[in-house]
């Protein structure tokens, strides 16, 4: 039986759209998130960037199911966090708010880069810096007047210290030993052969693949597994930690008492990465307090949607990173 | 008028097949190379690796034209240097010697990796090490009993110090400055914007391209141009020189009086690379004599073909690097 929600309840929709699919929550400001759906199909990216029609195709049945399940009669606000929004989001920004308004009567709609929803999920609406580290790596920070971002340039131009970066460095060290070059690691060579077979065949297992960063990142946990006892592997993780601290330092407010958090799958590597990372962050950002991330990007999206419903965002607006469409008075400042 | 060659003359065919096309020479042992043809179409690589049929399709008309031009009535031996032979040459090795025999009565045929023809072109049949540095980077060396190779793993796994490596490092430094991260270079950022436009658009100009290593390498000369005055650019070239010396040291005979040479387009960068490279090679290989490359890979192929015609190679054989098919008595030792 649907719960009973009066017309006075402020319903919201929160979305997190990324490389592994779309996750959606509906709820009310009064009660928080009430139900959630997930699609495993990532939204297509075409000539116009993120495809708004495909976005709606995925979203509409999930929202219908969620409103039926929760009995929420009116969704007032929505927050949509989307990977690639900053660089590939022009069509989505132009069309999604109108589509949500026509389909569900929703407005205003906040559109946020996935780095922003990661930030808000991790730290909420306060000054600081968040490093989102998975296959790639991006840092985002705010002093609550504007957003800054660092890295996130992809596996060839940057993403320094991310999973693909660590895995790539580990495989290079393996091949150095195979060749008899300096700077190699026999432990990493053994791991590489376990994972990929004889290393002569490694180029053939990497270069033809469309998802090269993921192939590289698949070796990152093996670098962590070798770090206790293998100085080359330990040095790779120390260098990754330095790169992550470089990015955090580039976006973190220089004054005040900012918080800094690291989120993403890379933390699963545990102490071999986390210990040098905490050291590098302390060294580079002595005035910042290191905190665990409070929540994930979907929770960040929920937070943005509820703030918007409750009268407007206190987070800074930014054309590429966070904008609100179809609002009346209260918006980002 | 064709020159007059007696039936006693030992005709040969030499081929250099690479990413930019196929170059072919015919000549005689007595007179050396006599005429040359060039095709701008690289041999196709398919499911079976380098395509032997496409190879012959390109080669046959060139050889017909060359024998007509030179009047050489019988080609006895051939040397074929081919990029990718070690990893993608199985079908070529299996079929090319028979095809050359049927079409032109040629035999024996030497098949060499392009790194080997580069070596022989640069140093001839003597012990040493050659670093072939263009967009990629590979080193090959011999003590005249066997071949060693180092690197050549491609732009994600290695090719450390090559053109794509240098260009990639330069672009990363440019983006560090753009982000406000440590380790950046304002000079390289200015160069990157001159070459690629606003750096926000740089990922879109790199990742969709099929020839990413070439796009990265296109920035390498700009790193060299900044090195006088920009310490970050100078450090990149110093690190590239160290990587090149690592590869040279891995393949160079440890004893005796080996020669070491560097070949390839990267040398066009001049002093900003060459000066640290000579220093690093002296430091790592004090017993080796640094010499300029005597010739290019096509000249290496000519040398292999004439040696073969004159009674057999003095160079070591190696299944992947240098093998002779269809020979009688004299072959590689």
Automatic annotation (TrEMBL), chains A, B:
<feature type="domain" description="ATPase BadF/BadG/BcrA/BcrD type">
    <location>
        <begin position="15"/>
        <end position="269"/>
    </location>
</feature>
<dbReference type="InterPro" id="IPR043129">
    <property type="entry name" value="ATPase_NBD"/>
</dbReference>
<feature type="compositionally biased region" description="Basic and acidic residues">
    <location>
        <begin position="33"/>
        <end position="51"/>
    </location>
</feature>
<dbReference type="InterPro" id="IPR002731">
    <property type="entry name" value="ATPase_BadF"/>
</dbReference>
<feature type="region of interest" description="Disordered">
    <location>
        <begin position="32"/>
        <end position="51"/>
    </location>
</feature>
<protein>
    <submittedName>
        <fullName>ATPase</fullName>
    </submittedName>
</protein>
<dbReference type="Pfam" id="PF01869">
    <property type="entry name" value="BcrAD_BadFG"/>
</dbReference>
<dbReference type="InterPro" id="IPR052519">
    <property type="entry name" value="Euk-type_GlcNAc_Kinase"/>
</dbReference>
């Amino acid at each position: 039986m649907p719960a009973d929600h009066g017309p006075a309840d402020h319903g919201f929709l929160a979305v997190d759209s990324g490389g592994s699919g779309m996750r959606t929550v509906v709820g009310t400001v009064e009660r928080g998130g009430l139900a959630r759906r997930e699609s495993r199909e990532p939204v297509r990216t075409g000539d116009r960037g993120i495809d708004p029609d495909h976005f709606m195709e995925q979203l509409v049945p999930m929202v219908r199911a969620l409103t039926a399940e929760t009995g929420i009669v009116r969704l007032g606000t929505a927050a949509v966090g989307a990977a690639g929004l900053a660089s590939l989001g022009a069509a989505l920004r132009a069309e999604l708010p109108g589509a949500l308004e026509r389909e569900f009567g929703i407005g205003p709609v906040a559109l946020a880069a996935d780095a922003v929803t990661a930030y808000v999920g991790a730290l909420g609406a306060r000054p600081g810096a968040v490093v989102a580290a998975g296959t790639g790596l991006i840092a985002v920070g705010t002093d609550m007047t504007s957003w800054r971002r660092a890295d996130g340039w992809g596996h060839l131009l940057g993403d320094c210290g991310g999973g693909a970066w660590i895995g790539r460095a580990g495989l290079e060290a393996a091949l150095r030993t195979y060749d008899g070059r300096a700077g190699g690691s026999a432990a990493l060579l053994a791991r590489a052969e376990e994972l990929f077979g004889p290393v002569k065949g490694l180029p053939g297992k990497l270069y033809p693949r469309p998802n090269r960063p993921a192939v590289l990142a698949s070796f990152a946990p093996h670098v962590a597994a070798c770090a206790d006892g293998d100085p080359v592997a330990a040095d790779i993780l120390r260098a990754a930690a330095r790169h992550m601290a470089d990015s955090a330092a580039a976006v973190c407010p220089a004054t005040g008492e900012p918080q800094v958090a690291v989120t993403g799958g890379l933390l699963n590597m545990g102490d071999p990465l986390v210990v040098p990372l905490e050291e590098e962050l302390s060294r580079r950002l002595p005035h910042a307090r290191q905190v665990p991330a409070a929540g994930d990007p979907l929770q960040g999206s929920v937070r943005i949607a509820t703030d918007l419903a409750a009268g407007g965002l206190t987070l800074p607006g930014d054309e590429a990173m966070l904008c609100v469409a179809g609002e009346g008075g209260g918006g980002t400042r």
